[in-house]
Amino acid sequence: MLEGLTRRVIAAPKLVLTLAVTLLVAMGLFGLGAAEKMLAGGYEDPTGESTHAAEAIEKVFGQGGAQVIVKLDGPVGMNMATDPAARRVADEVIAQLENTGFVQQPILTVWNSPHLDAELLSRDQRSTLIAASIDGDDSTAPAMAKQLDTELTGVSDGIEIKVGGAALVYTQVNDQTSKDLFIAEAIAIPISFLLLIIIFGGAVAAALPVVIGVVAIVATLALLRVITSVADVSIFALNLATAMGLALAIDYTLLIVTRYREEVGTGQSRADAIVRTINTAGRTVIFSGITVALSMAALAVFPMYFLRSFAYAGVGVVIVAVLAAIVLTPALLAVLGDRVDALDLRRAFRRLFRRPEPQPKPLEATFWYRSAQWVLRRAVPVGIIITALLVVLGLPFTGIKFGFPDDRVLPESSSAHAVAQEIRDDYDHGALSNVVAIVQGPADTFVLSDYAAELSTVPDVVIVSSPVGAFRGGHLIAPPQPGLVIGADAKFEIRGDVEPMQAAGQEQIAALRAVPRPPGTTVSFTGLAAVNADTVDAIYRYLPWVLLLIAVSTYVLLFLFTGSLVLPLKALVLNVLSLSATFGAMVWIFQDGHLGGLGTTATGLLVATMPVLMFCIAFGLSMDYEVFLLGRIREEWLKSGQTRADNDRAVAIGLARTGRVVTAAALLMAIVFTGIAASQVSFMRMFGVGLALAVLMDATLIRMMLVPAFMRLAGRWNWWAPAPLRRLHDRIGLTEE
């Protein structure tokens, strides 16, 4: 099938390219609006208790939208609670909020809710908060928050007005992500092109992977625009899809062009070399794409649309990259012909300085072959030392702590982060650690009173506002507030004095949930602490299935590719070892704050969804290089007498043939992910740094050292499989030929 497709492409390459350009222009125009359709949320478990409570608050009470906080700062010495000017400015702000038509009631202030003065009035009393919620979801709330920020921010009667809250965090995350995407591409594309010139020597050959990469980016944007019409898609999928589209397209094209030059060097015609290249390297590209796509598809098991959208985008971008590589690259090679080697800068440099043309070295004299032989001769010490190094690097991973993203994912210069930090510094923690309990079902006043009193005795609970009154320390201290009960649904607002994302906040929500619930009722909790706990629980609940799916599918595919039961197991073990070291570094830097957290705000937690996402992507990309390497090793093994010495020679030749291209591909991919690391959103910076480190570590320590060391020690057992499975592989296995 591949040969037939390739012959059709090179028979009419200009027609293929004309159709591709036409389609590309259409996709580019269509994909321009992709970012506007994407959302900034999706971290919550839609099946969790906290989500159920939030839905009840919205449907029954008409509240519970994304939080918006207006902060009023007066001059030194002003008491915001008693000063008439402060009250006047606050009334103006409240009127503006009410006039928008999308701000929910109640709007809480220190004047209408004096029992909340501990969280609405700063300790020095010269700052106060106006707390409200926006009647909108992830798709509409950010624009509403941006409107409020524009209309309210400023100074009135000497009082500074600032806007913050979760809704504005989403807005600024969206805006920052769009800016970061442009910066990432501005970094990755030109640097990749310059590196490709060094690798290929010629500017024309170097341009091919970049052209295919740009095609993949444009097609991916159009694909994401289509996906947004049928499913919620995270705005961060845009960064991943464009980065992976560029990286995979460059990797695949690099492999194809390198193999094409190798085939031409054997004396074949350019047309035959293209067909031979796609029959071999093209098959490897397709198989590699399948392994990456399966790793990404596993993310669809999770219920959070943040992770599910990466599954859609990841699978889509792999399909785009593979198609672009195996269809457009042959067409471009056919059109260019001998001109693919034009603008050879290395040759021009040698002519300029009158240096002789280098004579081609025999394979056994190349750096990569000699390096492989060095490792093969020292397989035991190399294996022990590298394994020990990776284990040590992975030790911090044992202390990983998951959390929910808040304003601190933004840079300190962002207004949403600055306002929230001022609240953390100057106010009691209650403003940031509210928990809401929804009691559904028949319950009399005495039962609800006992329940509210019991909740108020939980450590670090400041006050519980309920339909039967406000309680502190088990005692009634204030009459009930209106609007806390509708029919058989009652709302309990619990203010605490802990950071909801830290251990104390998680202990508090666990203690609140452990309080005996009123008989005959259903109680559900929501708030940052509850959402964080439910999100982490969901990840732990689904993670074993995701890991099992990835492991089984990868094992089966590698068996079909190699015919061995040993090599797939080796690949899984080495991948886990490599990724553990990568995650150890991420914990050490971004959770614990070493190296200044590389310019981010370390909170002692990692955003719960990111390590899972990074694992699936990095695992797939690691298999990408595994396939590149095993494809050439197996090709040499099948041509040999299949003795132990032949195994060693096949490993050395496979490394010699692929070492340069794998290292170059890893470096290019690392450059692409380094572009993402320039992001001002902290977990995207971690994402970029982590993937760049994972790719480089895998291409060097794993593929060039541990793989040959293991294959030397295993000898002929590398290729072992029971006779029935060997026969099965002979019938349905995937081969290079």
Description:
The model has no long low-confidence stretch (mean pLDDT 85). Helix 21 packs antiparallel against helix 22. This protein is of the alpha+beta class. The N and C termini lie close together (12 Å). Strands 7, 8, 9, 10, 11, 12 and 13 form a 7-stranded antiparallel beta sheet that branches. It is 63% helix and 10% strand. The chain is built from 23 helices and 14 strands.
Key attributes of the depicted protein:
7-stranded antiparallel beta sheet, 5-stranded antiparallel beta sheet, elongated, about 725 residues, 23 helices, about 65% helix
Layout of SSEs?
Layout lengths: L1 H10 L1 H19 L17 H13 L4 E8 L10 H16 L3 E6 L8 H4 L6 E8 L6 H12 L1 E3 L2 E6 L1 H35 L2 H26 L7 H30 L4 H28 L7 H32 L8 H8 L14 H11 L1 H16 L7 E2 L11 H12 L8 E6 L4 H11 L5 E6 L2 E4 L2 E4 L6 E2 L2 E8 L6 H12 L7 E6 H35 L3 H26 L14 E2 L1 H31 L4 H34 L4 H33 L8 H10 L5
Parallel strand pairs: 6-14
Antiparallel strand pairs: 1-3, 1-5, 2-3, 4-5, 7-12, 7-13, 8-9, 8-12, 9-10, 11-12
